[in-house]
Amino acid sequence: MSASSRPRPLRKMVLPVAGLGTRFLPATKAVPKEMLPVVDKPVIQYVVEEAVAAGIEQIIFVTGRGKGALEDHFDHSFELESTLQSRNKTQALTEVRAPIQAAGNVIYTRQQEPLGLGHAVWCARHLVGDEPFLVALPDVLTDPAAPCLARLIEIYGETGGNVLTLKEVPLEEVKKYGIAATGAPRGDIVEITGLVEKPDPERAPSRLHVLGRYILQPEIFGLLETQTRGAGGEIQLTDAMARLMERQPFAGQVFEGGFWDCGDKIGYLHANLAIGLSRGDIGPKLRPVLAQLQLEA
Ligand code: UTP
Predict the structure, then answer these.
(1) Is 276 in the pocket of ligand 1 (CB under 6 A)?
(2) How far is CA 58 from CA 23, 106, 107, 142, in A?
(3) How confident is the model at residue 2 (pLDDT cuts 50, 70, 90)?
(4) Nearest C-alpha to atom 22 of ligand 1 is from which residue?
(5) Of 7, 74, 127, 188, which is least surrounded by CB within 10 A?
(6) This prediction's pTM
(7) Has residue 2 been placed in a domain?
């Protein structure tokens, strides 16, 4: 690929966090679901850390009412930090400061009404401007042991255009997800030729579902602007992507690592156990607890 045809660099990530989290009520009445902890970190912190490690420079949160805890989490807490400092709690101090990004690199805008994921992404249009960007659904947690975003960005460097992370699910689960129609794979890269929202298993074009990590070209904003309401009466990102596919190429990253949907109670509990078990400080103590529970069940 010549320098002139190299894809435009990817610098910005949009995190839509304005949803109501109704599947997690009453926990999410006053606490954003993206702030629910997986072991000891809010679920959103995992994807922010992964994105920054993969080279993302600016993070745009699309928030809504009652989401102030998110802004506080990614900012200094001077009282807490000075108390920890005076008590020589250096490890805790490091952890409290870890989510804080360089000044000016975190930007907030609001989606005044939760009109759907597509609408939330559209709310970030002036902050993204005319450049490609990453969208990540923060309640989808990918296994930190198998970083997904670094490879997604690498694939974008090869293919340009739009790139979505895809993950195979069992056939009986395809009706829960957006499913991709694809060409023949080339390693972990496939061409995406279509998207079908929540198909019946017999009509599904594949078992590859759209995981919640998207690299999109800014032309998506013009399509979101005119996008009519789709499934659930919401403005769906999938519908606008299907229209963009008529004009621009879409590639898929076939992701082999694990993931958990932390917006769902079972997915959330599973993530806590899996990540807890994988950690050196928690796993050895958690394993006998689980064995005991299994004996009692
Ligand atoms: P979800 O559909 O998982 O979130 O959207 P939700 O609507 O909050 O959840 P339930 O179904 O009611 O439990 C995925 C991501 O998109 C954001 C959510 O905050 C979540 O991070 N989102 C969704 C928005 O920002 N705005 C919306 O209008 C909808």
Answers:
(1) no
(2) 30, 6, 8, 21
(3) very low
(4) 19
(5) 188
(6) 0.95
(7) no
